[in-house]
Recover the amino acids of this structure.
């Protein structure tokens, strides 16, 4: 049985749909109930839903053999896992955004509000820019409006929230999407099963791009 960690929410539903079309369906998983684990012995799969930010933890620790995590989570937490493929779902971009007309000056430390502290730190380190990270967990766009930060680093999908709050993208610097990841030990001992799923999912991802 291959244990699969799925991210809760809209992305998880899309991901499961790919698994289903690839031949790894699981009866009852999309029904409204309080069950946490769903399995299909005939297909050799066992699914469970977790918060998107926790998928990589379950996979890295071996509770899940494979899972689907956003590239943003992988970059931020740097889990010790194999990244098998890009599923092409949940596409968005990591970006620096600021109030309209903002111009950076290196004469002072740049205040950066974000929930992706490691990503922001690595990005600005590559530019040799001194920054002050202000870690927030929600409503990142509010920080520059209220004078808490100069800029924000966040995921941008449509940009509507930024525009509604008179913010604009300064620079995009990472393409984000859902990735299929695997536990390193499981990949070695359950290679055939994981490889079969990966190939089937790769076929599904290819059809989506057509």
């Amino acid at each position: 049985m291959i244990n699969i960690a799925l991210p809760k929410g809209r992305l998880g539903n899309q991901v499961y749909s790919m698994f289903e079309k690839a031949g790894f369906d699981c009866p009852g998983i999309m029904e409204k109930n309080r069950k946490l684990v769903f399995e299909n012995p005939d297909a050799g799969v066992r699914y469970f839903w977790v918060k998107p930010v926790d998928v990589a933890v379950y996979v890295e620790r071996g509770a899940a053999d494979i899972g689907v995590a956003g590239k943003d989570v992988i970059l931020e937490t740097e889990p010790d896992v194999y990244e098998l493929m890009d599923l092409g779902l949940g596409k968005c971009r990591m970006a620096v955004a600021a109030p309209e007309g903002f111009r950076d000056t290196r004469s002072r430390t740049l205040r950066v509000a974000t929930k992706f502290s490691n990503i922001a730190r690595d990005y600005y380190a590559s530019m040799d820019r001194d920054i002050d990270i202000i870690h927030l967990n929600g409503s990142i766009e509010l920080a520059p409006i209220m004078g808490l930060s100069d800029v924000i680093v966040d995921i941008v999908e449509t940009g509507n929230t930024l525009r509604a709050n008179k913010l604009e993208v300064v620079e995009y610097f990472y393409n984000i999407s859902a990735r299929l990841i695997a536990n390193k030990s499981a990949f070695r001992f359950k290679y055939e099963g994981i490889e079969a799923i990966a190939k089937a999912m790769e076929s599904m991802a290819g059809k989506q791009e057509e």
Notes: Helices lie at 10-21, 55-60, 71-77, 117-125, 142-145, 160-164, 184-189, 191-209. DSSP finds eight helices and eleven strands in the chain. Residues 60 and 90 are 22 Å apart (CA to CA). The two ends are 32 Å apart (CA to CA).
